[in-house]
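step 3/5: co-fold with 6-O-phosphono-beta-D-fructofuranose
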Amino acid sequence: MMSPSLSTIGVLTSGGDAPGMNAAIRAVTRTALYHGVQVIGILNGFDGLINGEFRPLGARDVGGILPRGGTILQTRRSERFFEARYQREAIRHLNEAGIEGLIVIGGEGSMHGAYALSQQGVRVVGIPASIDNDIWGTNMSIGVDTALNTIMDAVDKLRDTASSHNRAFLIETMGRGCGYLAVMAGIICGAEMVLIPEVETKVEEVIAAVEDAYRRGKAHAIILVAEGASIKIHDLAQAIDQADVGFKTRITILGHIQRGGSPTAYDRLLASRMGFKAVETLLAGEHGVMVGLKGRLMETVPLSQVIEHQRAVNMEYYQMARILAR
Ligand code: F6P
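step 4/5: write tokens
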């Protein structure tokens, strides 16, 4: 596979950061340089593209970043980029800098931005990165595995103290629109109950589950609450305490800890494969696509399809979490 027409590509990170973004930037840069293609890093996501905030990336610029969380290019959630006039401004900067192909690393919103540019003739390839794992067209997004490991570590620690005091812990995970992290954490951490935006759960059901756990002689109850669940965690704690079911409650909001930290082996490998594949895709003359993991293979999927769907939580896993909690 050779590059007859590309001499310079750009790379940016956008949306919420995800552990492994740096590994992807490194893979993009080194793969491109291997093929004799120059790389320009675009700072601050699509905002930086609008402003023309560019920085050339050499092989040494991406040295040592593989194990680092966050993104060396910085990231933003750009409101301006939804407007056509700012998109035109971004394209003008791309042309002036001689950037002939663009790699966008980010979440669902970022894939919308990537698609908008591709509709206007920019050669774009997307790389899915979001701890929420809600991007359609890939089994896994960059950052999910690290976030799950962070949650697992935290819940394991909280269970120790919950058991010692015979308490019910209500633990909030990220995911304002998607319960993936809470459901998977429910399975790998052994939660009594998981509350997610996709499933309407009544306060009474949660109280009954906590009481049931107490009656069955459990030393603690762990309730995982996704950020976007309809029941608010503080109201829930109050209701459980008032019901006096045996366990007293404590609340822990895991928050942005879930987005930081050194990427796991899985995320480093996934990000490296995706960065590599994204550059090879551009060089093969394919664009307007996102790279995605299908089974064991790294494939491409049209951005037009990615933005039309949302990757839904597999409800079999939700059921499994409930059954295994018995
Ligand atoms: O999209 C990733 C995510 O971490 C969500 O899980 C979370 O709801 C949101 O970003 C938080 O965004 P912010 O960092 O802008 O508060």
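step 5/5: annotate
The chain has a mean pLDDT of 96.
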